[in-house]
Structure formats: structure tokens, C-alpha cells
Design a protein that fits this description.
Number of strands: 11
Radius of gyration: 19 Å
Largest sheet: 6 strands, parallel
Order of helices and strands: EHEHEHEHHHEHEHEEEEHEH
Helix content: 25-40%
Strand content: 15-25%
CATH architecture of the largest domain: 3-Layer(aba) Sandwich
Number of domains: 2
Strand order of the largest sheet: 1-11-8-7-5-6
Length: 295
């Protein structure tokens, strides 16, 4: 059976490190603040934002949530972002997605000043990542890299196959892991909905990252014996036996794949906690740079 890569434990280690950095900044007279904008009443978004606020509180970062109705005009949202850009008390800004259809995601991403873009999705920050000199890296890809490194599975020189080419995970993760630097240097293949003979790609991966958005998509026969499997998926499936009426599963058929893989992340408890931990780290990085402090 595969060894479980415990994202909760590793994320807790990172939060402890972040807490020490926050304390050192506070001793230097610098307070950190993360401002989140939540548009509409999407239940998952509300949970994510609440989780991020709780994590901020645990490490000593002040946080606030600006709640706006789903009918808010795009121009008003952009004005709110511009106000946060100019507020010296704000270290980092994130706009929770998804956004209502009448609002341009591209316009919103570009509106956040790159120096406070702790989500790492401003075109300038993505461009720096692709160029090999990242400023802010999106939290989920950065969390995946940390999971690999801290669990003893560095990607250097390995064949990494990523299933999914989203702007949130697949694309930035590929750019991150193919960088010419320690903790990267991987040979990366990105598969997607138009990939032919998907199994031929997944079965040669030393490290397989799955962000397909489909429950149980990767089965045991699709995985190389001894591979490391990172499951990014979070899917709600009906389960009458569960008191909630549903359960959360990943994009990997866990029971099957865990019999083949060397190591695997669970869902929940794998990548999810790492995403929040890396957002905290990005916020500390933003605040320290804005203050001129380095550690």
C-alpha cells in the first residue's frame, strides 16, 4: 500500500514557520493584513474564505472580507480593488473566484497590483514564473511543490505528468516544476481533454499530478508501479450512508491507486491544507517586501 502524504501535517509545519516570520515582522513594527473580496453567495467560496480567515488568525495576520452582492457592477469591484491597492495597511489582496458572469476575470486579475497579488495570478507574476524568476507563485502549485519536497519526493530529474491544463493549477505547476532550479528541474508533460492515449502518458510518470475535475478519473491500471500521486481534485458525490448525504473524493480512485503507487495524497487532507498555507506564506512575502524587511 502507498504511503500517505499528509498535507495537514506538512501545512501545520509551514504555518508554524509563517507564524515565526509574522512575529519577527511585528517586532519590527510591521503588521500584516490580508484583504479578500467575496462576490455573491457561492457556498464553496464562503467556506474557502472563512478557512483563510481562520488560518490568518492562527498565525497573527489580520484579515478582512469585503462582501459584495452578485449584482455588483464590474466598475465598482475594480474601484474597490484600486482602493485596496493604495492602502498601505493592506499587505495582500485576493479576489475569491468564481465571479458572476458579467464580470471579466481577466480585468479583475489585472486590477490587483502585482506587489499585493498573493494569489499569483496577475499576468506580470505569471510571466515572471514562466521566465524562471517568480515573484508570487499561485498557492496550489506552490503547495504541491512543497508537498513533494517535504515528503521526500523531489521532482528534480523526474518524469512529471500533470493531468489538467487549468490556469489555476496545471499551467502554473508545469512552469514551476520545469524551472532550472533546485526543487524543480523536472521533465513535465501536461495532458488534457484532447490528449490521445492518456494512459500511455500517465503510466510512465514518476510523479503524477491529477487536476482533472472528475471524481475517480484516474484508475489503478493507469498508474506506474511505485509512482508518487498527487490528487488535486475536490468533488462532492452523493452518499446515502453519510449523514451529510455526500462525501468528498478526489480525481483519483484512491483504493485502486493506493495499491499501486509508492505514495499518494488523500482527499481531503492532502493538497487543500497546503493551498491555504502557501497563501499565508505569500502574504508574509508581500508584507516583508513592501516594508523593505528581509529575513
Amino acid at each position: 500500500m502507498a504511503k500517505i502524504i499528509d498535507g495537514r501535517t506538512i501545512a501545520a509545519q509551514i504555518r508554524t514557520e509563517v507564524g515565526r516570520e509574522v512575529a519577527r515582522l511585528r517586532d519590527a513594527g510591521i503588521e500584516l493584513k490580508l484583504s479578500a473580496i467575496l462576490v455573491g453567495e457561492d457556498p464553496a467560496s464562503r467556506i474557502y474564505v472563512r478557512t483563510k480567515r481562520r488560518a490568518c488568525s492562527e498565525v497573527g495576520i489580520t484579515s478582512e472580507v469585503m462582501k459584495l452582492p452578485s449584482t455588483v457592477p464590474e466598475e465598482e469591484l475594480l474601484q474597490r480593488i484600486d482602493s485596496l491597492n493604495g492602502d498601505s495597511r493592506v499587505s495582500g489582496i485576493l479576489v475569491q473566484r468564481p465571479l458572476p458572469g458579467h464580470i471579466s476575470v481577466d480585468e479583475v486579475l489585472e486590477a490587483v497590483t502585482p506587489e499585493k497579488d498573493v494569489d499569483g495570478f496577475h499576468p506580470r507574476n505569471l510571466g515572471r514564473l514562466l521566465a524562471g524568476s517568480p515573484s508570487f507563485v499561485p498557492a496550489t502549485p506552490l503547495g504541491i511543490q512543497e508537498l513533494l519536497l517535504r515528503s521526500g519526493h523531489p521532482p528534480d530529474g523526474r518524469d512529471v505528468v500533470i493531468v489538467g491544463r487549468s490556469d489555476l493549477v496545471g499551467k502554473p505547476l508545469a512552469a514551476l516544476l520545469m524551472r532550472k532550479s533546485e526543487g524543480a528541474n523536472a521533465t513535465v508533460t501536461v495532458c488534457h481533454s484532447s490528449t490521445r492515449r492518456l494512459e500511455a502518458h500517465t503510466k510512465r510518470a514518476n510523479i503524477l499530478v491529477v487536476a482533472a475535475g472528475s471524481p475517480g478519473f484516474i484508475r489503478g491500471h493507469m498508474v506506474k508501479a511505485g509512482a508518487v500521486v498527487i490528487d488535486v481534485g475536490i468533488n462532492r458525490v452523493e452518499d446515502a450512508r453519510n449523514p451529510k448525504g455526500y462525501r468528498i473524493v478526489g480525481d483519483v480512485a484512491f483504493e485502486e491507486v493506493s495499491k499501486v503507487a509508492r505514495a499518494i495524497t488523500p482527499v481531503p487532507g492532502g493538497v487543500g491544507p497546503m493551498t491555504v498555507a502557501m497563501l499565508l506564506r505569500n502574504t508574509v512575502t508581500a508584507g516583508s517586501r513592501q516594508s523593505g524587511q528581509t529575513f
